[in-house]
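Budget justification aside, the reviewers requested a transparent look at the raw inputs and outputs of the sequence design task funded under Objective 1. We therefore reproduce one unedited record. The lines immediately below are the structure tokens for a 196-residue chain.
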């Protein structure tokens, strides 16, 4: 069920793996002017094979989060798989978003960086087709940002994740004793590779 249609300042996109009321995309959210957009899409349930149980859990989490948004007074435009409205025939997130952008006429479209490049490209294309630019906020669920990793990687002849992990362990004091790795070594990979 969707909230009543009206023009919005910021349309905040929330994907099924971004169910966090404190996500960066919500920074500055004003329920009087902004709205949240979520959609269950047939394409997302079938693009990668998933068990029926996983799909049910994923959709349940989305629907519970949608209710939490409503309870928090945040206007929400939500598409369910079993919707029978005008957009029911639209199978992809991009198509559903494009239809809602046309009716809501947001000034800006904002989202937390998605973890799936295909989904990102689809949503970005839908937003750009409406003459808008998709504003992407950093995902705060990680110790580091993409730009920090790019800085780490620049100028290196080869990349080994182990060295990046070491930097993170030092920065956040994880498994460190007085600036040295706990136990005297960075990892136990050699021990783990031995046969049992």
């Amino acid at each position: 069920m969707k909230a009543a249609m009206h023009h919005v300042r910021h349309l905040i996109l929330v994907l099924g793996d971004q169910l966090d009321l404190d996500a960066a995309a919500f920074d500055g959210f004003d329920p009087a002017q902004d709205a949240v957009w979520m959609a269950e899409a047939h394409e997302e349930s079938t693009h990668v094979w998933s068990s029926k149980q996983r799909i049910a859990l994923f959709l349940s989490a989305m629907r519970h989060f949608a209710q939490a948004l409503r309870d928090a007074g945040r206007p929400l435009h939500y598409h369910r798989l079993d919707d029978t409205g005008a957009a029911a025939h639209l199978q992809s997130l991009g198509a559903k978003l494009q239809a809602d952008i046309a009716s809501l006429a947001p000034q800006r479209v904002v989202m937390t960086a998605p973890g799936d490049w295909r989904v990102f490209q689809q949503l970005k294309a839908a937003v750009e087709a409406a003459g808008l630019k998709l504003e992407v906020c950093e995902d705060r669920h990680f110790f580091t940002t993409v730009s920090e990793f790019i800085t780490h990687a620049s100028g290196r002849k080869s990349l080994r994740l182990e060295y990046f992990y070491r930097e993170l362990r030092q920065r956040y004091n994880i498994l460190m004793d007085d600036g040295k790795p706990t136990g005297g070594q960075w990892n136990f990979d050699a021990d783990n590779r031995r046969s049992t």
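The chain has a mean pLDDT of 90. The first strand starts at residue 10 and ends at 13. Computational costs for records of this kind are itemized in the attached budget.
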